[in-house]
Amino acid sequence: MTETNKGRTIRWGIIGTGKIAAKFASDLAFVDNAELVAIASRNAETAKSFAKKFSIPNTYSSYEAITADPDIDIIYVATVNTLHMENTLTCLNAGKSVLCEKPFALNADQAQKMIETAHKKKLYLAEAMWTRFVPLTVELRRIIASGTIGEIKMLHADFCFTGRWAPQSRLLNPDLGGGALLDIGIYPVSFASMLLNCQPNRIATLANMAQTGVDEQAAFIFQYDTGALAVLSCAINAQTHGQAVISGGKGTITVHPPFWHSSKMTITANDGSERTVEMPYQGNGLHYQAVEANRCINNGLTETPAMPQKETLAIMKTLDTIRGQWKLKYPVEKD
């Protein structure tokens, strides 16, 4: 079964051949008005292997070359964090719309440049925060907006896993924009932004830094103008449950793990009554953001209301504030 929306078939290209690119390529098969026509890698053999696996007709051995393909409407940027701005700007300046993997950029200044270029070129641009597009999250937002649990007072969310020690990997290498915050901490931070519909007015955070100089684990407390609090954490050296608990004046919603692509939540009223909502999805759940990108492009929209560019920029500023408290700068950011 495929996901359907009206409009012409949108032709996709992908830059990058890592795990997330492979999952996205696989999931595009669930979108009936999407065609994956090209893949680019700086290694020609890697591009050919990826193309063979996913039956992609065109391969390119440079990121610049794929943007010159006239048969591409939009490019999914799935490279390392330090290349997101460069790759996105190359695509936009070549007239291609972009869905850019999270984190959208290394910092807010980079994000601003990307957004300004998209506006100038009148092209679609969005951060690939796939959590927002899975069916359960869409329903979660509807339930909260309906007032079922009242005004949000407290949010708890964590995304932590145990990875192997590999200093040169994208997770730990500062030259690649590594660290828990930008890789997975962005999920609870963006989740809080989505649910509270604003950025915190006060941030308290602590982090343990790896020998490479990036954050291995961190915890954050956000305070909002409404008085709400968000208690969030991330780690690449410890395993946690991975759920989210949203507490309001009338009840609580528990988003079962993994909250960032969950298919189940339990709504508990203050009187103890509860109900469970289950919304399974196909594949990896990445195709919903492609469905939305196709819808927007076919309707002449340059951004999606599910992940507005203004909010992406605001979240990047929050991430900058957090890193500023740790005095963490990446080599490419230093003067």
Describe the model.
- With 335 residues, the protein is of the alpha/beta class.
- The protein folds into 2 domains: 10-130 and 285-304, Rossmann fold (3-Layer(aba) Sandwich); 135-280 and 316-333, Dihydrodipicolinate Reductase, domain 2.
- Helices cover 32% and strands 25% of the residues.
- It has 9 helices and 14 strands.
- The protein has helices spanning 19-27, 44-54, 63-67, 84-93, 108-121, 135-145, 180-196, 287-298, 309-326; strands at 10-15, 34-40, 58-60, 74-77, 97-101, 125-128, 152-160, 202-209, 215-223, 229-235, 244-248, 251-255, 264-269, 274-278.
- The strands form 2 sheets. Strands 8-9-10-7-11-12-13-14 form an 8-stranded mixed β-sheet, covered by helices on one side. The chain has a 6-stranded parallel β-sheet with strand order 3-2-1-4-5-6, with helices on both faces.
- Helix 5 links the parallel strand 5 and strand 6 (125-128).
- Helix 5 runs antiparallel to helix 9.
- The longest helix has 18 residues, at 309-326.
- The chain starts with 9 loop residues before the first strand and ends in a 9-residue tail after the last helix.
